[in-house]
Amino acid sequence: MSLSAKSVAVITGAASGIGRELALNLASQGVAGLAISDVNSDGLNETVEMLGDYDVDVLSSTVDVSKRDDIQRFADETVKRFGRATHLINNAGVGMVGRVEQLSIEDMEWMMAINFWGTVYGTTTFLPILKKENLGHIVNLSSVFGFIAPPGQSAYCASKFAVRGFTECLRHELEGTSVLVSVVHPGGIKTNIVKNARRGKSATAEDMKIADEMLDTLAKTTPKRAAETIVKGIKSKNPRILIGMDARQISLIHRMFPKRYFKIMDRIMGGMLSKYR
User: Fold this and answer.
1) Tell me, which fold does domain 8-247 have in CATH?
2) Helical packing angle, 41-51 and 17-28, nearest 10°
3) Entry pTM
4) Confidence band (pLDDT; 50, 70, 90) for 276?
5) Coil, strand, or helix at residue 183?
6) 193 contacts 17 by C-beta, under 8 angstroms
């Protein structure tokens, strides 16, 4: 069972962007239930309203993924409502702009708490529930910045490299069990992640402007298309899901030129990446 009328999917970060589109896409697939969460309760309520067009049982919960107790409560609510979960998509994430010297330790801790520890908490809390299924699936969202590390994205890259390593190790550990594991590497997605990103302690308004311009240049894929690609990857049991032509190009360049990828990509982008230096 990859996705079926018996599936119950858990999605974090479902108040907007990819998370919302994943909820809508899975509802259109005819899954039995959706357990969706976000720290943004207003946005989450909007997603619930949009899901009203589908015949799907929806549980929504305001959750801060950086808090383990919130995740445990969410898991308990899911089991109480549905009795099970078959798919977990750890999608919740945030952005931050700033070079290492512009970031405080608190900035980095905030980033890792959400992007990395949120993924760890979600995975470890729901894994025992998923292992009870004939086939369960964990899907963790990394980034193309889980392959490459441009200036000005040190905290974000650290979190997404960590998600990638954690997820790939988990996949190898669970090989041969009833739980599949996939890591997702989106390229530029037309979301508000940069506009909503936190500015590092000493980062400037100009740094934020550069980050916004870079995303506008890179963001060619809509959240809807990203969700479609993830769902396709779930159905095909793909352990490594790349979203967008840019993600495929970045993956290839990084593998072919592990020492020189930054110079090559910066040249392709007209020097935009090196503006952070």
Assistant:
1) Rossmann fold (3.40.50)
2) 20
3) 0.94
4) low
5) strand
6) yes
- 8 A C-beta contact, residue 219 and residue 95: no
- pLDDT per position as a tens digit, 174-228: 999 999 999 999 998 877 776 677 888 888 888 777 777 777 667 789 999 999 9
CA–CA dist 129, 125 (Å, integer): 8
Listed by start position, the domains of the chain span: 8-247
Q: 261 catalytic, yes or no? A: no
Nearest alpha carbon to residue 170 among 129, 125, 123, 134: 123
User: How far from the centroid of its chain's Cα atoms is residue 241's Cα?
Assistant: 11
Contacts 24+ apart (CB under 8 A), 172-179: 177/131, 178/130, 178/131, 178/133, 178/134, 178/135, 178/136, 179/127, 179/130, 179/131, 179/133, 179/135, 179/136, 179/137, 179/138
Distance CA 130, CA 140 (A): 14
For 28, 112, 166, the CA distances from 22, given in Å and listed in that order, are 10, 23, 22
Structure letter (DSSP) for residue 200:
P
Closest CA to 32 of 97, 100, 78: 78
Q: Are 181 and 230 in contact (CB under 8 A)?
A: no
8 Å CB contact between 3 and 56: no
pLDDT value of position 277: 62
Write down the catalytic residue from 54, 121, 156, 261: 156
